[in-house]
Amino acid sequence: MATRASGRRSADAFRFEEMSRTERVMAAVRGEPVDRLPVCFWHHFQPEGSGRALAEATLRFFDETFDLDIAKVMPDLPYPFPRRSIQGPNDWRLLEPIDRDRSRYFTQRAETVAVLRDDLGDDTPIIVTVFSPLAEALYFAADRDRFFAHAQEAPTVVHEALSTIAENLRAHIRDVIDAGADGVFLALQGCSTAIMPEAQYREFGRPYDLIALQGAINGWLNVLHVHGERELMFDQVLDYPVQVLSWSDRLAGPSLREARGMTSKCLMGGWHEFGALSNGPEEKILEEAQDAVAQTGGRKFILANGCSVPDDTDDRWLQLGREVIDQLDIA
Q1: CATH classification of the domain holding 321
Q2: Pairing of strands 71-73, 126-131
Q3: How far is CA 275 from the centre of its chain?
Q4: In sequence order, which residues have a C-beta less than 8 Å from that of residue 268 and are 6 or more positions away?
Q5: How far, in whole angstroms, is CA 327 from its chain's centroid?
Q6: Gap between the Cα atoms of 242 and 310, Å rounded
Q7: Is 146 in contact with 86 (CB distance < 8 Å)?
């Protein structure tokens, strides 16, 4: 198994003093020079047990095995409401405010962050993945068509449910940041015209995204992930109060170069999640990384997968992804 040391260069390879992970990512977010390009990639762990088990899986993957620049807590402890359970419009009334002191969703995920912070200190950024209110609602409905039917037949009750989810997420995000996280990775679903018209997202998505993000006001590394494989409403979320934008640039578009012309925010992406990073070969992993640098100039950029790589991805491809960072010229 690879170790953290395998990804480090000798001192004479740096143009200036080696940065900590936090210094490197913070500089990238600000558009300042970095000693090397920051890098992160991820998949789901689905550990059984507690927030501590999730913390241990996170440490093994992001810190010990791959020496990545960001520790990303995955959403493997889910929002406490049964998936695919809502059948009729009145079922949305079952969504209620969460007791923050008694909910495993709140306490265990905050414990994950606290354990990570104790182990990593301040030298590694920690972000917590949270699904947006609309994304959660789409999971709770028996099926997607059911959600849209209820939104048309009983919009008031659906709005009330989304508001409740958003307020719960706002409190949760505030709690994990108070526990030591540097920000949130808010994953939007439904933000695609392949799923709904723009006007419908502006009604049922955007207002509740922004409520949830109020909990992240004290974070410096808030990432907005626009999930989807096509027809993303990218321009609809460029003004969200986050520092970083993440999306499947090679699968859904826009390209990194196109996005750089649309926003001054830090961009996160460059690797196709179902491409070379999860299947090889090595030269293609390097080729995509070099192309990402060419598109962005290596500034205000974090090299990453567009979305989760498959959970059964062979570690050798991920290790090669980590190692190619030292071959990238960002001068």
Answers
A1: 3.20.20.210
A2: parallel
A3: 19
A4: 40, 223, 244, 245, 246, 301, 302, 304
A5: 25
A6: 27
A7: yes
Nearest to 225 by CA among 273, 267, 282, 258: 267
Three-class DSSP category at 255: coil
Domain total for the chain? 1
> 99 CB contacts (<8 Å, ≥6 apart)?
none
Indicate the length of the chain as a whole number.
Answer: 331
The closest of 91, 161, 169, 105 to 131, measured between CA atoms, is 169
- Coil vs helix vs strand at 51: helix
Q: For residues 24 and 20, give the distance between their C-alpha atoms in angstroms, rounded to a whole number.
A: 6
Maximum alpha-carbon separation in the chain: 66
Range of the structural domain that residue 317 is part of: 4-327
- pLDDT (tens digit per residue) in 253-307: 999 999 999 999 999 999 999 999 999 999 999 999 999 999 999 999 999 999 9
For 127, phi then psi, to 5°, come to -125, 150
Q: pTM (2 decimals)?
A: 0.94
Q: Which residue has the tokens 């859904």?
A: 252
C-beta of residue 321 within 8 angstroms of C-beta of residue 312: no
19, 41, 74 from 187: Cα distances, Å: 29, 15, 11
**CA-CA distances (angstroms) from residue 174 to 101, 131, 206?**
14, 15, 19
Residue type, 200: Q
> Crossing angle of helices 51-58/104-120, nearest 10°?
40
Kind of pairing, strands 244-247 and 39-40?
unpaired
| Rounded CA separation 147/140 (Å) | 9
Phi-psi region of 180 (alpha: psi -120 to 50; beta: other; left: phi over 0): left
Q: In the structure encoding, which two tokens stand for residue 331, read together?
A: 């001068």
The Cα–Cα gap between 156 and 153 comes to: 9
Q: DSSP letter at 94? A: G
For the stretch 108-124, pLDDT in tens is 999 999 999 999 999 99
Asked if the bond preceding 254 is cis, omega within 30° of 0, the reply is yes
Residue 55 DSSP SS3 = helix
